Amino acid sequence: MKDALDISICDAVEARRDDMVALCADLIRIPTLNPPGLNYREVCSYLAERLAKSGFKVEMIRAEGAPADSAKHPRWNIVARYAGAEAGECVHFNGHHDVVEVGHGWSVDPFGGEVKDGRVYGRGACDMKGGLAASVIAAEAFIAACPDFKGSIEISATADEESGGFGGVAYLAQQGYFDHVDHVIIPEPLHKDRICLGHRGVWWAELETKGRIAHGSMPFLGDCAVRHMGAVLEEMERTLFPLLATKHTEMPVIPDGAKQSTLNINSIHGGEAEQDPDYTGLPAPCVPDRCRIVLDRRFLIEEDIGDVKAEVTTLMERVKAERPSFEYEIRDLFEVQPSMTDRDAPVVQTVAHAIEKVLEKAPEYVVSPGTYDQKHIDRIGKLKNCIAYGPGVLDLAHQPDEWVGIDDMADSAKVMALTLRELLGP
Ligand SMILES: [Zn+2]
């Protein structure tokens, strides 16, 4: 049940509904495509100006020396801070400002920020400029309704989440920006009635089979790396995929298909490099001496990353025992440990309570199939009291005609504002 102050906080959010829609649309109109990382400075300056007007102290931070940071594409971030009337805890909202490529199949301008039928459309609408806008409105509404609050509110807008977050949250965490923070909410599009506790683990690796080049008319004089890779893939189909399907997790991962270990083969390249599309000649007859695949293995909190890697090495050794002529190499590209915040953590309990007040239902607790910036807050920032909570339908992320619902944004902004009241309020 909402009390009088809860109602006035929710009214303050409601009074800012048009402002929230305009803010979301403005953010969409700044095309922060990543890669390569366009307009990061513009989006940060825009937010800096707005938050400064609302009384926040704003810092613009370039992740100098981070991966992908360059003079041409600098990795800009902002951290905005509003200190309350007296000392207390710090609640930090973190949203990434980068968006992925547009792709085909749009019926609206992907960077138009079009508003129709109660939705805001555009690339990044749900992932996650809608969530970022909702968190800004939540903070502004709460400050207006409870000017005498204790503690502090921080809002960060960070770079590169879509490419690993190293020029964004990881950099800020390394620089100590989370050292004094008590609670983190990341408004990723998990939906307004769901609390996302964390994510599965990731291991990306490149696997290469090596043969010997020869003339294609005399393949018996060479050793075909593509055929070796064919045998590797066959062995994966026969043994590895069935094994992964038997590994189930206690983590409440959504959707259901991700409640088990999964493996995607991202790409395969073998033999001669592909020529430019304008090349009109024929390929040369060669036996391929190299074939590479990129593996994307998602693992569970119950699994050890050492075992995950050993599964692949053991498989390769099995194939090699049958085909002794080939060599192989496995190169690690990227790894992330699974992360899961405890259901009893203060931020989880508080957001759950606020969801009950605003939506009059109990929240659903979920875990994301893929990773997001929580990994850096957990591992580098050493802060476990972190969740993802925000408006939007996860399935729409990275799709054509991406949108975020205006009612969903307003409801989740109310949940965030009531969360602030419970953690910092009078
Ligand atoms: Zn996102």
From TrEMBL:
PROSITE patterns tied to this protein: ARGE_DAPE_CPG2_2
The chemistry this enzyme catalyses reads: N-succinyl-(2S,6S)-2,6-diaminopimelate + H2O = (2S,6S)-2,6-diaminopimelate + succinate
Highest taxon above the source species = Bacteria
Annotated GO molecular function terms are: metal ion binding; succinyl-diaminopimelate desuccinylase activity
Keyword Endoplasmic reticulum on this protein? no
Enzyme Commission code(s) on record: 3.5.1.18
Q: Does the keyword Thylakoid apply?
A: no
Q: Where is the Peptidase M20 dimerisation domain?
A: 198-322
Q: Report the enzyme's class at the first EC level.
A: hydrolase
| Alphabetical keyword list | Cobalt, Hydrolase, Metal-binding, Zinc
Pathway connected to this protein? Amino-acid biosynthesis; L-lysine biosynthesis via DAP pathway; LL-2,6-diaminopimelate from (S)-tetrahydrodipicolinate (succinylase route): step 3/3
Q: Which cofactor does it need?
A: Zn(2+); Co(2+)
Gene Ontology biological process terms, A to Z: lysine biosynthetic process via diaminopimelate
| Family (UniProt) | Belongs to the peptidase M20A family.
**What name does UniProt use for this protein?**
Probable succinyl-diaminopimelate desuccinylase
